[in-house]
Amino acid sequence: MNTPIKLKTIFGPKEDFNVPVIVKNLQGQDVQIDFQCKARTKTEWAPVKKEIVATRIAKIKEQAEAALKEEKKAKDDDTAQTWKDTLKRVKEFEESDAIALAGAPNAEQAAIALKIANGWSLDIPMNAENLAAMEDAYPGSIEALVTGYDGAVFGAREKN
C-alpha cells in the first residue's frame, strides 16, 4: 500500500544526498568515494549543468581551433615540418612547466565538482586542490560524480 505524500513533504526543505563514485585504483580494485551533494530540483540543476556543458564545448572548440591553426601554419611554413623545428618544439616543451600543463584539466574538473558536492567520505578536506589530486590519481572520477548527480536528480523523478 502506498503512503500518501503530503504537499508539506514535497515542498519542504531539500536535504543534501550522497552520490557514490566507484573508481579503480592502480591495482585495478574498485574504490568507492561517497560525495555529499547539494540538493537541487531539476530546474535548479539545469543552469548548472548547462554551464558545465558550455565550458566543455568551449574547451573542445578552443582545442580544435588551435589544432587547425597549427595545421595551417605547418602548410604555410615549409620549415615547420623539418626535424630541426620538431626537436626545437620538444625542447621548448621539456623546458615548460609540463606538470602545470597536465594539471590544468584537473583544476577545471575540480571547479565542476565544487558546484555539485560539498563534502566527501575521505579523511581530508574536500577542496579544489584535493579534488584535482583525486582526478589526477583516478581519472574520470569527477565525470562519474557529474553523471551520478545528474542521474540522481533526474532518476529520482523518473520513479515518481
Rg, rounded, reads: 22 Å
Q: Would you list the SSEs in sequence order as H and E?
A: HEEHHHEHH
Adjacency order of strands in the biggest sheet: 1-2-3
Per DSSP E runs of 2 or more residues, the count of β-strands stands at 3
Low-confidence stretches: 97-101
Mean pLDDT score: 78
Largest sheet: 3 strands, antiparallel
Helix vs. strand class: alpha+beta
Description:
The chain is α+β, with helices and mostly antiparallel strands. It has a domain of 47 residues. Helices cover 62% and strands 12% of the residues. The chain contains six helices and three strands; from the N terminus they run αββαααβαα. It has a three-stranded antiparallel beta sheet with strand order 1-2-3. β1 and β2 form a beta hairpin. It is elongated, with a radius of gyration of 22 Å. About 3% of the residues have low confidence.
